[in-house]
Structure to design on (354 residues):
């Protein structure tokens, strides 16, 4: 079953005759085709992809499960909906309420006679469950990013800046075949490593912990990994903190299975860190779902109400951050199965000392 068919089957759950999809990532999910502009409408029996002259030829070649229609320069999204609504007798159409601006929503309500039904969750729920084919593509992206990371190891020294090392990751990712980076790489060392999402600076890599958070995009799919290295010999507390984060990650991973409460996974990891005396220094959650976006809708943290279904791809990334001193994060990517999980990250997790 292709993704347009999956969307079509879910329409009755939202009491919709059709689904209006304008977000680029959601259009890619549905059709396998990516363009910076376009409108996809999936009805109970058909699908329409409206696209302008910049992409019409590529769309016609790539899209097999929807009728591709040239979007004329003077036509709007509302005009597209009116065209389909008239032909397919649509009275209620779902839309991505988590993606649409207030301005666009007002324009649609002013111009459309069919009811607009908030249905962003329909797409999020479908995207949360990856097929084995999807997983294979994510693994391919993961292997590419791991290859690049291994290339970086020989470049790391106290003579290179954080920003230069981050730039090397971007360059080598593209050179090795990535379509793009999944996000701006985080390269933070010494005291800067206490900032979970610190920005690489012009300072040279210092002694102590060096955290590198990196990912690539390949065929639309994202990888996401973090490794913390040590420049020079660590002291006893640094070793303790690293080992605590490693144990916390393993505890969280061991708690994962299809149908588990996300908060319970976070708690399993958090308890290890709290018992070691560092509970105040783990501020973010255990992990997030990923796929066509590096951060998708499911979250494992202390406020999450999510249930993690089998088929979800999720990061496992606890950390400890001592302000002004240093921080440690270890991140793998996990594929959730009915009875457990599969770790698709192959980089070693022992403390690497350079």
């Amino acid at each position: 079953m292709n993704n347009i068919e999956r969307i079509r089957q879910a329409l009755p759950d939202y009491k919709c005759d059709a689904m209006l999809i304008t977000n680029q990532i959601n259009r890619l999910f549905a059709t396998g085709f990516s363009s910076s502009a376009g409108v996809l409408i999936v009805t109970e029996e058909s699908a329409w992809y409206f696209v302008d002259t910049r992409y019409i030829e590529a769309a016609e070649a790539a899209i097999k499960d929807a009728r591709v229609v040239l979007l004329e320069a003077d036509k709007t999204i509302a005009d597209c909906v009116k065209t389909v609504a008239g032909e397919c007798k649509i009275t209620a159409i779902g839309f991505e309420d988590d993606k649409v601006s207030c301005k666009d929503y007002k324009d649609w309500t002013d111009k459309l006679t069919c009811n607009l039904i908030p249905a962003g969750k329909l797409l999020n729920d479908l995207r949360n469950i990856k097929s084995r084919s999807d997983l294979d593509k994510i693994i391919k992206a993961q292997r590419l990013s791991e290859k690049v990371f291994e290339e970086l190891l020989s470049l790391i020294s106290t003579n290179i800046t954080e920003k230069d090392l981050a730039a090397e990751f971007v360059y080598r990712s593209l050179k090795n075949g990535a379509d793009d980076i999944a996000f701006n790489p985080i390269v933070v060392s010494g005291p800067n490593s206490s900032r979970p999402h610190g920005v690489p600076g012009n300072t040279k890599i210092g002694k102590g912990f060096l955290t590198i958070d990196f990912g690539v995009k390949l065929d639309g799919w994202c990888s996401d990994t973090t490794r913390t290295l040590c420049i020079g010999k660590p002291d006893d507390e640094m070793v303790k903190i690293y080992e605590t984060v490693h144990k916390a990650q393993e505890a969280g991973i061991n708690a994962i299975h299809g149908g588990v409460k996300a908060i319970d996974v976070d708690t399993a990891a958090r308890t290890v860190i709290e018992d070691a005396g560092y509970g105040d220094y783990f501020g973010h959650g255990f992990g997030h779902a990923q796929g066509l976006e590096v951060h998708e809708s499911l979250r494992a943290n202390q406020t999450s109400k999510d249930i993690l279904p089998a088929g979800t791809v999720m990061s496992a990334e606890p950390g400890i951050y001592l302000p002004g001193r240093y921080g440690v994060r270890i991140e793998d990517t996990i594929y959730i199965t009915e009875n457990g999980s599969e770790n698709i990250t192959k980089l070693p997790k022992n403390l690497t000392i350079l």
